[in-house]
Request: fold
Amino acid sequence: MNFGVVVFPGTWSDCDFHYVIGEVLHQPVRYVWHRDNQLSDFDCLILPGGFSYGDYLRAGAVAGRSPVVEALPEFVAKGGVVLGSCNGFQILCESKLLPGALMRNECLQYRCQSTFLRVENAETPFTRSMRPGQTLKMPISHGEGKFYADAETLRRLRDQKQIVFRYASEDGRVVKDANPNGSLDNIAGVVNEEGTVLGLMPHPERASENAMGGTDGLLIFHSLLGSLVEDGSFLKR
Amino acid sequence: MSGAEPKVTLELALASGLTGEEYDRIIRRLGREPTYTELGLFSALWSEHCAYKHSRVFLRALPTTGAAVLQGPGENAGIVDLGGDLALTFKIESHNHPSFIEPFQGAATGVGGILRDIFTMGARPIAILDSLRFGDLEDPKTRRLIEGVVSGISWYGNCFGVPNLGGELKFAPEYAGNPLVNAMAVGLVRKDRIFRARAEGPGNPVFYVGAKTGRDGIHGATMASATFDEGAEERRPTVQVGDPFTEKLLLEACLEAMATGAVLGIQDMGAAGLACACSEMPARAGTGMEVELSRVPQREAAMTPYEIMLSESQERMLLVAARGREEDLRRVFAKWELDAVEIGRVTDDGMLRVAMHGRVVAEVPVRALADEAPVYEKPTARPAWQDELARFDPLSLPVPADLTSALLGLLGSPGIASKEWVYRQYDMQVGINTLVMPGSDAGILRIKGTRKAVAVTTDCNSRFVYLEPRAGAAMAVAEAARNLAVSGAKPLGLTDCLNFGSPERPEILWQFKEAVAGIAEACGTLEIPVVGGNVSFYNETLGQAVLPAPVIGMAGLIDEADSRCTQWFDQEGDRIALLGPEDVSLGGSEYLWHFHDRVAGVLAPLDLAQEGRVHEACRAAIAAGLVRSAHDCSEGGLAVTLAESCISGPRSIGAQVNLPAGDRRADLFLFGEGPSRVVVSVPREAERHFERLMGEFALPWRWIGRVGGQALVIEQHGKEMISVSVDRMAYAWRVGFERHVA
Reply:
């Protein structure tokens, strides 16, 4: 399975994803420069964390209009999958590949901490090796991660099972105390209608080795690897 | 020469921060009056900040060599050998004055500046630490400063993408008008790809890369070389404005350009901007340099040569390229959408020649600027207050009736309480190297591709330094080394940030001289070289000098990352031991300050040889896997150390401690502070082995209790002195600082 890690000016989780995919999972992986739009070599593209273009406008707003992001709809239509974490999630929302928006944390401060996520949908290519209701430990590191969507969009997200991860307590209860940024409905990650584009604020690449405090992030990669079928397409839900 | 520039007079020279004597010296050296631009160059390069005029004679005492030292002081940052083909570079620097005037940008650009010092060496930054000192927390102005400084550090470091691995946050009223903001950065570099700030090879092109030049920060170096008066806050225009995004691009572009082989030398344009880089780089290489200022990318119109040379606009570098490789450089910087403009060339005549539209506006020997600033050996005098401070006997105060309440009070005192409010605003993991985040005695990073790890810390107890500058500064070195030892690391080198008041006052200069001597002594015995640092004088406002703070930043090596150690108790039944001497004192203690508002008394003695043995013993026990936790016993004394080991980990756990009968008072016993002490916990099955190992080191130690339960109970000879649940301790400790800030 060929992974591409997209690099925007200001991206900083690119090396971390590259390391986990290449050195921990031993999968082929290459960097993709933000001006590239030839994506046919890849099965999965990662939009990593960072401050693309400094996030001086809105987080992800400028990167959301870059050549590589504009090529993503075609990449997905041809069977590719896209994982956006942190700034990558913000970029996917800004480019309308995912619904909703990410706003300033409710506490108005940056937050770097461990969180627990409850798996709400275990039938996407990103979550297939998880159990529904399972809790995953994964850190966050962001200042603008408060997910918001209007009532109609939220209803659609629920109806179509697009909500994949919600912040929860260690024992899996979705409670206010477990919500680190004020996200609507404790939403930490969502997929598109087809289930082929995942955005989440937490950092799976920081939870992929025991030395880093846990390996729950690897479940996302294991799901992807297990979802790729022989003809090169992904199992969809 | 330019006719539009003001005429240079003695008055102008004095106004620019030079003394009359220095001005005469410049005239003698040049054989003529300087031009306006030349005066600007001298005022910046000969400022205390750049030239270390008052400190240089004392700093010579510091040991700067050692087997692991690849680069000592004098470059942008020092470098130590990590073994194999890797090396570690690190440096600490102050940004005190700017952070008081404009806390957010002052602190942010402090981080930006120290990061550039690291990546100019060819290294990728892998960690930052921040050592902060403020006035009384009850003062709303202090809260505003803390919030500004912390959010500035958070913004810059997080956006740039470097993890924050630790630091300090301390309080004393003396910092109210002059907070200390020191930032340390650490980088990893391949030994065969170390770069230096030298302009080698006459004829080679000189490139300006990075952000454009504006009028911000002009005279920042001069501002940092004077004390504050009431108008300090009006100096806001001398504070620079940071752009961490551009810095991130500059990092990637510089490392990529360095990998092409086209870069020969590189220097950050920090304090005194182009003036400093254009004179120091050729001075180090014995060359000269000529630059044409009209080519310098500018973001403001009609800037004068004086302004362009002295601007401290951020995120800029001066780079000397190999002739013929110019296109390689331009290609890399164009990819990262940064300016890279050839503004001049290296010459062989030892002169800095600055032209504007072809007209020479300054022509000065580079050595006159970079190497010939006057060196002062000003008078020092032991302050009269030292004797009075030493005369106070803390044991003249009554023993508190309720020792448990005293412990809870100390855990909630802002100096000791949890600083999670601060570090949860910092990215601590980017780079996925962080093995131990802030909250233990040292931060620990793995070195990918090896089994090694690096531990980093900053330390200084400025109350100790105030009471006994020499011993106090030696104790800062000892404590930093101890914090590394309890993490399992052997120190490789240190960087010091020496924050003091005005060196023109003999009492302050005496504090400085003594402190430097103390650092030198400790470094000598503990065999830790000083590989770089920074002196920050003039930390006083309206005649009130800060408590002297020679902050020690230290990095050490752990051979086996898996054997690293943290400060918190982990398992029921583990046995607790106290390593180190019995000697403690309430002089200068957190207890004396918190309950009696006093900084006075005499410190416990420091035996550096014994200190070293304690470190060796710790490292040996940790490497052999015999201890589950090890915690430096420092502020708050033994009781606070035990409490922290109970409550600072992922889950709280109690301890039962029984101390032998003694003739010493309970408050001294529990809360007295002294060097060379460590609390460890040892698994049952390792007790015998641990005892044998300790026997090999000639040091005092003893078993004092066991981990377990949900309370900390401390008895002396069977008599209960403290008994408190871990929940109550954890609550006091968690809210103690946080309740004061938003």
Remarks:
- Chain A is about 20% helix and 25% strand.
